[in-house]
Amino acid sequence: MLISRLYRVGFRVAQELPRGGCRHTNRTRYYTQGPCRQYRQSLLELLPETRAFQGAVLQMHHGFSTSVSDSASAGGDEEKEEISVTFVSKDGEDIPIRVPIGMSMLEAAHENDIELEGACEGSLACSTCHVIVMGMEYYNKLEDPGDEENDMLDLAFGLSETSRLGCQIDASPELDGIRLAIPAATRNFEVDGYVAKPH
Ligand code: FES
User: Which of 29, 93, 131, 183 could, after both became Cys, cross-link 89 (CB 3.0–4.6 A)?
Assistant: First the structure.
């Protein structure tokens, strides 16, 4: 019912267009350029139903809802672009922060003056960004570590079942609420003189 009504409204608008005095016969120009375009726009602005028509057509052809865009423009999506993360310091203090989607936990820690080393700046050549994910449910939401990360984790101080490298965890919506403990110590083999054993 709604769709057919909207189509009728859209058709009415299309019929109204030539009556507005536009004399261009070229279809492309008719809809996209000059006074015709202005006239069409003013008609669309005058008739609120035509917005619903446009929305319905967009929804059918592109599979998205204008109501989502409306809420985004009203700031509804802004909150979803950041997640809550709590670092637990070496002293056991909770440090809650907000982290933008896509930012690594190492970057987020540095932006918030949290003591997480990151000696190699995320190039998987150290284990100083070692964090312990608190809660298996969050650990299981992370992508499996690659070989390089596992190699570095083998060298980490205080390795645990849910250990990960902070530079390899990127904020994503499903990680909202994650807690990351910073181990009491880190092992920086470049500074400590540690020599990794060849495989
Ligand atoms: Fe070195 Fe993460 S900062 S591996």
Answer: 93
164 lines ligand 1 (CB under 6 A): no
The Cα 29–Cα 92 span in angstroms is 68
First CA to last CA distance, the chain: 69
Cα separation, 53 vs 158, whole angstroms:
61
Question: How far apart are alpha carbons 17 and 28 in whole angstroms?
Answer: 14
Give the Cα separation of 124 and 152 in Å (integer): 7
Which amino acid, 93? E
3-state secondary structure 33-68: CHHHHHHHHHHHHHCHHHHHHHHHHHHHHHCCCHHH
165 Cβ inside 6 Å of ligand 1: yes
pLDDT at 188 (0 to 100) = 62
pTM of structure: 0.58
Task: For tokens 């540690």, name the residue.
Answer: 194
